[in-house]
Amino acid sequence: MDFLRPATWAEALAAKAERPQAVPLQGGTDVMVELNFGVRRPDALLDLTRVTELAAWEEAPDGRLRVGAGVPYARLITELGDRLPGLAQAARTVGSPQIRNRGTVGGNLGTASPAGDGHPPLLAAGAVVEAASAARGTRMIPADDFYLGVKRSALEPDELIRAFWTRPAAGPQYFAKVGTRNAMVIAVCSFAIALDPVARRVGTGVGSAAPTPRRAAAAEEFLAAELDWDAPLDPAVLTRFGELAAAAASPIDDVRGTAAYRRHALAVLARRTLTWAWNDLRAAPRARRTG
Ligand SMILES: Cc1cc2nc3c(=O)[nH]c(=O)nc-3n(C[C@H](O)[C@H](O)[C@H](O)COP(=O)(O)OP(=O)(O)OC[C@H]3O[C@@H](n4cnc5c(N)ncnc54)[C@H](O)[C@@H]3O)c2cc1C
User: Fold this and answer.
1) Domain spans of the chain?
2) Is the CB of 160 inside a 6 Å radius of any atom of ligand 1?
């Protein structure tokens, strides 16, 4: 097996163009497991850890954050936790400290597992994936269009993920996950919510309850239309939001849980995260709610 070690982003793209079957390696917390278990035996690994720009994040002139694909979860939590609270919450649930030191959102996107914890908050926040190839340059893929099937994404064989783009949270964001134990666990199901009280927008993301991570679009539309942003949360609205979030799933029975349990748990997570978000909103000064 060849071990390719580009030193720059341009070299990485050139290597991927020349050898599209080469498997990118960032934190290695998915790739090395697959190699160890013989799930795949690629001709080449494309080590991205020397490409320094992948491990950096920046604030664009329009205020959006561009977070390099190689920024590990531990740094997301400490450096961006205040601006991306939903993603940081999800990051805190990933694996163990060792996994969070190595693992990245870029790798989570590369694997595109329906159970990946990074996906629901990216969907809820309306994040965009920046992909690039030597032949065609940069392509921006909304997270909503990125996931195509179980561990299948919109990424072409000659493309690499450069970064994801997202706005700093405009309001409360929450992520919640049900697992078969409290830590080091693959989600049985998960849910993320992002509220933007100024734009009066609701974002959601459902994890581990369908072939791909996905938004609960009907739940978002319902909530945006029915919420009275200046009043206490109506229990009927809360209940219906949970029902619609659960209805967005198309779960299966597997070793981690039944489809019926996943639907039930999703409704609970949706109600719970909305309640947390709403409580934050009500506690915030009115100026922050109205812009
Ligand atoms: C013990 C353990 C616990 C875990 N717990 C969790 C958990 O709780 N939640 C969770 O979501 N995941 C968990 N994982 C899975 C893994 O840690 C995550 O998916 C992590 O985000 C992978 O990131 P990485 O940088 O290590 O990716 P890598 O293993 O380096 O790569 C993962 C995939 O992405 C591709 N890739 C990497 N970088 C790029 C790029 N720039 N462009 C294109 N493709 C790229 C790789 O080729 C590979 O297919 C766990 C893994 C282990 C071993």
Assistant:
1) 2-166, 182-290
2) yes
181-194 pLDDT per residue, tens: 888 889 999 999 99
pTM reported for the whole predicted model: 0.97
Q: Whose CA is nearest to atom 43 of ligand 1?
A: 160
Name the residue with the closest Cα to ligand 1, atom 40: 161
Distance CA 181, CA 250 (A): 23
Query: Which CATH entry fits the domain spanning 182-290: 3.40.630.30, 3.40.50.300, 3.10.450.50, 3.30.390.50?
Result: 3.30.390.50
| 125 within ligand 1 shell (Cβ under 6 A) | no
Share of the chain above pLDDT 70, in %: 98
Q: In this predicted model, what pLDDT tens digit does every residue of 141-166 receive, in sequence order?
A: 999 999 999 999 999 999 999 999 99
Q: Does domain 2-166 have CATH number 3.30.465.10?
A: yes
For 112-131, write each residue's pLDDT tens digit: 999 999 999 999 999 999 99
Check if 2-166 and 182-290 are the same fold: no
- By the 10 Å C-beta count (0-12 exposed, 13-18 middle, 19+ buried), 158 is classed as middle
What Å distances lie between residue 10 and 48, 134, 182, 241, 257, CA to CA?
Answer: 11, 8, 41, 46, 44
